[in-house]
């Protein structure tokens, strides 16, 4: 392999190694930036979702309380109007009245379906109307030991015209549920109308939808970030490739020039040595190139001059042409 070719290939190999290293570092940095951005975006979306859920919880609670309160007041108002002037001591007769039953027992709906109901009991806790036949006809105080907080709120409703609160009680499937209720006195009667909703059916569906929306937003944000960084990474890679090719071209030309600058004086020395071997001792090469090559050219020129002088001196002293002088060991 010629020196020039060796130098050019070495130069290009060095450029290629540096370019590959820079490309690898760039890919690693872009990957880490993508992961960091996704992590930050995910945390931001989660924080925003949590904040929205907190705000929505307060808003939904207030709205839910208003809806339940409005329902209890409507039932109490309508029952007061229907029972006005009527005797209320005969509970069996009242229970047989389908109109009263339809007013006293109503479902409370949300966009997701039924989430609660209304019932009616008197100021002693006797349950006059209830959607669960196993509960209707019993007394609220029957569960005082199992649910003391619940019965405490019911006791308050005996004396207070308006009572609301959260409590635990079982449903018709005997499953314990967390509930919210509003209890309002029916005007002109000994009865109390109660509007009751199950929290997991009244509030949680909306919160779950908010959480799902937050998760969807998080996924969309991740996808957009990944797509953005993928496009940016492609641009960087293409730009890096073009820059690398340009660098290789410039480096190749520079390497060719430097290799020529180094190899040209050596080629002249090679040609000079060949001419000396052919008997031309007067040949001289230009003293150019790096210092070492220039020193070598100077020494070569001095050697040619010394050989010429030696031959001339030998001829003048009678040494036959073509004779060689004895070597000194």
Distance between the termini: 37 Å
- Top CATH class of the domain at 50-207: Alpha Beta
Principal-axes geometry comes out as rod-shaped
Task: Evaluate the radius of gyration.
Answer: 51 Å
Q: In percent terms, what proportion of residues is strand?
A: 5-15%
Largest sheet geometry: 6 strands, antiparallel
* Number of helical regions: 7
Q: Name the CATH superfamily classification of the domain at 50-207.
A: PAS domain
Arithmetic mean of pLDDT:
78
Tally of extended strands? 6
Range of helix content? 55-70%
Poorly predicted regions = 323-329
The name of the CATH topology of the domain at 50-207 is Beta-Lactamase
Tell me about this structure.
Strands 1, 2, 3, 4, 5 and 6 form a six-stranded antiparallel beta sheet that branches. This protein is of the alpha+beta class. It is rod-shaped, with a radius of gyration of 51 Å. It has a domain at 50-207: PAS domain (Beta-Lactamase, 2-Layer Sandwich). The model is unreliable at 323-329 (pLDDT under 50). α6 runs parallel beside α7. Helices cover 64% and strands 13% of the residues.
């Amino acid at each position: 392999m010629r020196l020039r070719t060796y130098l050019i290939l070495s130069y290009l190999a060095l450029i290629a190694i540096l370019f590959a290293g820079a490309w690898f570092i760039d890919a690693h940095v872009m990957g880490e930036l993508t992961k960091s951005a996704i992590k930050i975006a995910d945390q931001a979306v989660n924080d925003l979702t949590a904040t929205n859920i907190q705000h929505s919880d307060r808003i939904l609670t207030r709205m839910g309380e208003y809806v339940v309160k409005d329902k209890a007041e409507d039932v109490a108002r309508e029952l007061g109007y229907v029972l006005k002037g009527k005797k209320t001591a005969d509970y069996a007769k009242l229970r047989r009245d389908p109109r009263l039953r339809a007013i006293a027992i109503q479902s409370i709906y949300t966009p997701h379906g039924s989430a609660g109901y209304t019932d009616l009991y008197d100021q002693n806790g006797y349950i006059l109307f209830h959607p669960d036949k196993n509960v209707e006809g019993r007394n609220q105080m029957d569960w005082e030991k199992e649910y003391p907080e619940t019965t405490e709120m019911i006791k308050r409703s005996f004396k207070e015209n308006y009572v609301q609160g959260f409590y635990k009680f079982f449903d018709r499937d005997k499953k314990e549920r967390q509930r919210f209720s509003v209890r309002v006195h029916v005007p002109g009667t000994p009865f109390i109308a109660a509007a009751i909703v199950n929290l997991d059916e009244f509030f949680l569906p909306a919160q779950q939808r908010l959480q799902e929306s937050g998760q969807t937003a998080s996924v969309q944000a991740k996808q957009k970030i990944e797509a953005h960084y993928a496009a940016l990474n492609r641009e960087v890679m293409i730009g890096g490739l073009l820059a690398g090719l340009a660098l290789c071209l410039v480096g190749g030309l520079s390497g060719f020039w430097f290799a020529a600058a180094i190899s040209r004086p050596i080629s002249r020395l090679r040609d000079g040595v060949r001419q000396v071997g052919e008997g031309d001792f007067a040949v001289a090469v230009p003293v150019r190139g790096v210092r070492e090559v220039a020193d070598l050219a100077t020494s070569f020129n001095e050697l040619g001059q010394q050989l010429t002088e030696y031959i001339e001196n030998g001829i003048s002293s009678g040494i036959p042409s073509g004779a060689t002088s004895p070597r000194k060991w």
